[in-house]
Amino acid sequence: MPIVTEAIKAPKDDFTRASVADVYDVIVNDLKFASAKLPVGGKEEDPGRITQGAAWHFLAEAYLSQGKNQEAVDAANHVINDYGYKLMTERFGNTVDVFGSGDVYLDLHAFGNHNLPENKEAIWVVQYEPLVEGGSSFPGERAVGPAYFRMGNTPDGKKAFLGELYNGKYTGYSDSLSRPVAWIRPTWFATNIIWKDDWNNDFRNAKHQIKRDFYWDNPASIYYKQKVDFSLYPPNSGRDSMRDTCQYIFPYFMKFADPLNHFTNPDRSGNGYNHKDWYALRLAETYLLRAEAYVNLNQKDKAADDINAVRIRSNAKPIAAADATIDFVLDERARELWGEEQRQITLRRTGKFVERIRKYNNNPIYPGLNIANHHVLLPIPQTQIDLNIGAEFPQNPGY
User: Fold this and answer.
1) What does each C-alpha distance from 345 to 31, 123, 286, 349 come to in angstroms?
2) In sequence order, what are the beta bridge partners of 169?
3) Can you give the C-alpha Rg of the chain in angstroms?
4) In this structure, how many other beta carbons lie within 10 angstroms of the beta carbon of residue 310?
5) Model confidence over 154-201: pLDDT tens digits?
6) Which residues lie below 8 Å from residue 246, measured CB to CB, with a gap of 6+?
7) Assuming Cys at both sites, which of 82, 190, 237, 318 could form a disulfide with 233, CB separation 3.0 to 4.6 Å?
8) Domains in the chain, CATH or no CATH each
9) What is the pTM of this model?
């Protein structure tokens, strides 16, 4: 990419590509400046403003991307040791256990808890204000949840999901499950493989965290309150399509849901706002960044300590130093940060992008999504190359 450090005030068509090392020099210098000049956490002007801790966290990522592992450890140490952040280990804030049970991981993602002063794990929180001019609603819930309300009828021909009424207005969806539209379905890796060794202990996999069972809610059906089971439909009913398991019913990560907070505007009954804020960064990720650096430095005992700090909080079994590998760090990041981390960036940084897509995205029609080695880099839009008539701007290899 080109390096642009000053405002461009006139048309320019002669950009040239800078080296990766030169680009990282700019990134690192900017982050060093930010880590000294930004306010410390708790002193920022408004919630959502970036602070020194976030700058140090991103600096640790930048160092890891360059293979500067000790520098990454040092940057992560600033976040973990210098600003009063800590992993939350006790329940706090809004503890509405909609599904009958809960834990501190549920509290971390509960409505209203992201910005609380007692939440010492939050480093940088994205603010969503759907009822403020220029604001918006949190999109994650609609993106990753199943569109259960679209699945049609029960096996005996009754409407499968009635939803709820608010102020007498029909909504067609549940205020506890909200109204997702299934833009993103988690993979088998995310919903099953990473949990298999500690399925019943790790409460990040608990029923109130990942909802795998859905129940018909129409009292007119003989299947009322029974678990949705597509095998109960008559043969040739069309209930064995990919739509059933890729759109209507699939495991739902409830950290994205905003139970009991959708019907806040009685004039908006068809959709429902999600007022939940969302983590851009929290301390659990910093621990896992430092663990990654320790693995690269072959200090596996320290890597295991950082991984276990995250695991023990969720009642998962601690690991031995010998088990602290980059693959385990990546699995732990998936368990802790699914939907929060920038996964593609993580996989590219660790050199695992192609390998793990081939291993875990095992679509029988397109295994590994036909990924090729050159896909580790994205293509440069051809329009940008064509417009840059004043200098050669080569395409990335393979495109």
Assistant:
1) 18, 19, 15, 6
2) 166
3) 23
4) 22
5) 999 999 998 776 555 655 667 778 778 899 999 999 999 999 999 999
6) 182, 185
7) 237
8) 20-91+279-387 (1.25.40.390), 135-276 (no CATH)
9) 0.94
